[in-house]
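Read as chain and fold; for instance:
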Amino acid sequence: MTSSEIHLEAAGRPVRLTSPDKVLFPATGWTKQDVAEHYLMCAEGAVRGVHHRPCSLKRWPGGVDEKFFFTKRVPSTIRNAVEVRFPSARPGRMAYVEDVSDIVEQVQLGVLDLNPWNGRIDHPDHADELRIDLDPTEGFSFDDCRTVASATRDLLEEVGLVGWPKTSGSRGIHVYARLEPRWTYGEVRRAVLALGREMERRLPGLATTEWWKEERQGVFLDYNQNARDKTVASAYSIRQTGLVSTPFTWDELGTIDPGAMTLEGFRDRWAAVGDLTGGIDESAGSLEPLLAMVAADEEQGLGDAPWPPHYRKQPGEPPRVQPSKRRMEE
C-alpha cells in the first residue's frame, strides 16, 4: 500500500480509498477522506436513507469546482448491484446500499451526495417514499420554505401520513413520508401534484407547482421528483455546497439554520442529537386519501402536469401550446 491509498474500516470490512488527501472542496480544503469519514460518523442515519434503494452515482472526480456526471449503470468496483428497469423500459444494473461500506465505495468513485430511488430493490415497481421537494424561486428564501413546510406537515397529518423534514443542503427543505409499497411511481407522483395544488390553494402566491421555471413564483413543490428513476439527495448527504442535508424535528422548523450545517458544523449537531430519522420506516401509511384528492382535481378539470423532458409523453399530459413570453423575447 502506497501513501496515496488507505483502507477504511466500514461495517466490519476494509474499503479501499485512493487519493484520500485529494481536495474535493477547494474553498475549505475538505478531502475525499473527510467525506468518507462524515458517512462513517453518521452511518446509522445515512444507511437508513438509502438502504436497499437503487442509487444513481453523482460523481465529482475533480471536486466541486469542476463538472460532475451521473452514472446510473453500476461500475464493476461496486459490490452490490441490482437489475432495474429504467423509464425507457431498458434494463440496467444499479448500485444499492446494504451497509456503510457500500457508501464508502461510492465515495471512492467521487460521490458526495447519495441519490437513491424512492422505491427499494425488494419492490422495484412500487414506491415506498413520498418526497416533497420545496425549492424557493428567485426572490424567495428558506424562511418561505419554512412556511410551506409547516402547511405541508398539516396537510400530511390530515391525510394520515407522517412528514419527516430535512434541509436540502442547498436553499430548500425536503419533507418525506413513508408509504406502504402498494402504489406505482406514477400514482405517487400524481398524488404529490394534487398535494401541491392544495398548497397553492392554501398559500396563494407562495406555493407553486408551475413546471416551467420562468413561470414559477414562490416555493416550488417539485412533484416530478417522485417519478420513476428520479433521485433526491438523501438524509445526511454532503452536497456540493459544502452543506449537509440535515434532518430536524418539526419543533426546530422555525430555528434550524441550514447554513450552519457544513461538513464541519454538522459534527457538533450529530454529537448533540444523533440520528433523527429513527422510526421513519415504521411510519408507513396509505396513499388513498391523496388519490382521492387526485380524483377531486380531475372532476374539476385539473388533469396531469408536465413530466421531466426525458420521459415519454404521458397519456393526458398537457402539451405546451406556445412558448413562454420570455422565450419569445429571446
In short: Confidence is low (pLDDT under 50) at residues 321-330.
